[in-house]
Amino acid sequence: MTEALPKFLKPIQSLPGIRADWVERIPGLEITGDRDAAMRSLRRSHQTAVQHFSPDASWWRAEQIHGTGIAVIPASNAIEASDGLPVMAGVDGLITNQPGHTLAIYVADCGPIWLADAKSGAIGLLHSGKKGTEGNILTAGLAAMEREFGTRPEDVTAVLGPCIRPPHYEIDFAAEIGRQAEAAGIAEFSDCGLDTAADLARFYSYRMEKGKTGRMMALITRDF
């Protein structure tokens, strides 16, 4: 688990009332099964991390089907995931403008994207891998934030977290996300540049570990 806030999250963390975090590989936790088994193994560690991050907030997660669907939180279309906890059905992105809600996205090579609107206080988290990037979930997330909260791209700070990159993957979807951010007119976009496949002591990598791996967790909340 990350001991201190990663430097790459400082653009989000510096915004008043908004906090973000990132949970990496859990040291000493052996994972040898598929995604469902991995999520069951990670449940306790991730619950502890969320409790430490935002003890009084509701915890919201996305089903993550490699699509471009966005859920506005709070919402009511939750289903039970393999770890026994609820997830929002059929979506890969979560947005809210209300305090007291912690949004979470899981990745193990795909890219987590944190979004924060400095003016309205709206926040979001997106799961953007190969398919999500092809579908431009970033634009979908921004459009949902504009529709629901009046967010303008020029007021948005966005951060792309660790994900798989060349030479470990033949498609540079991280670079494409950067191009999408520029085309959308996002005020401040930063890419951490970290490759999940290059550091298995720190990250889980679906490709390098042939699917028998865990998941990192991205978090964001609004305190006020």
UniProtKB/TrEMBL annotation:
Annotated GO MF terms: copper ion binding; hydrolase activity; S-methyl-5-thioadenosine phosphorylase activity
Signal peptide positions (record): none
Highest taxon of the lineage: Bacteria
Entry keywords, A to Z: Hydrolase, Metal-binding, Transferase, Zinc
Catalysed reaction equations from the record: adenosine + H2O + H(+) = inosine + NH4(+); S-methyl-5'-thioadenosine + phosphate = 5-(methylsulfanyl)-alpha-D-ribose 1-phosphate + adenine; inosine + phosphate = alpha-D-ribose 1-phosphate + hypoxanthine; adenosine + phosphate = alpha-D-ribose 1-phosphate + adenine
Entry keyword Calcium: no
UniProt keyword annotation of Zinc present: yes
Family: Belongs to the purine nucleoside phosphorylase YfiH/LACC1 family.
Descriptive protein name: Polyphenol oxidase family protein
UniProt source species: Luteolibacter pohnpeiensis
